[in-house]
Amino acid sequence: MSDESNHTGGCRCGAVRFEASAEPHHVSYCHCTDCRRATGAPVAAYVGFMADEVAIRGNGLARFDNGTVTRSFCGVCGSPIAYTDARIGDRIYFMLGAMDQPALYRPTHHAYVRSQLPFVHMPDGLPRHARTSVPRPDGTDA
What we know:
Number of helices: 1
Largest sheet: 7 strands, mixed
Shape: globular
Strand content: 25-35%
Structural class: mainly beta
Oligomer: single chain
Order of helices and strands: EEEHEEEEEEE
CATH topology of the domain at 4-28 and 46-105: Metal Binding Protein, Guanine Nucleotide Exchange Factor, Chain A
CATH class of the domain at 4-28 and 46-105: Mainly Beta
Strand order of the largest sheet: 6-7-8-9-4-3-10
CATH architecture of the domain at 4-28 and 46-105: Beta Complex
Number of strands: 10
Distance between the termini: 29 Å
């Protein structure tokens, strides 16, 4: 994929920066309603890392909690940064667009295609999951 020094990103204004010290464990598209509303885009793309392999710097990070999901964004410029989900442990998923070199991270599947907008056509041949693409420890696929 890339060397570790390339796993960096941040917001538009520079108030939030992050860096991962290991390779991502997950790169995917998400078509769920919550991701659409959080990003303002018809489909979201994420790069997942283990949280203990990530350093986030700056004083602009803000958070919004919605049940088990916490979404972070820059409180200065509003850029969406990442999300975590208490149901899947110590993982953090950064917005692909927040990465400094987003072209290095090719998604490997689609999640929540049951919620995909009918005019979004992505004939990429990737696996498609009706619900989540990240197994939950309790076995649910919510």
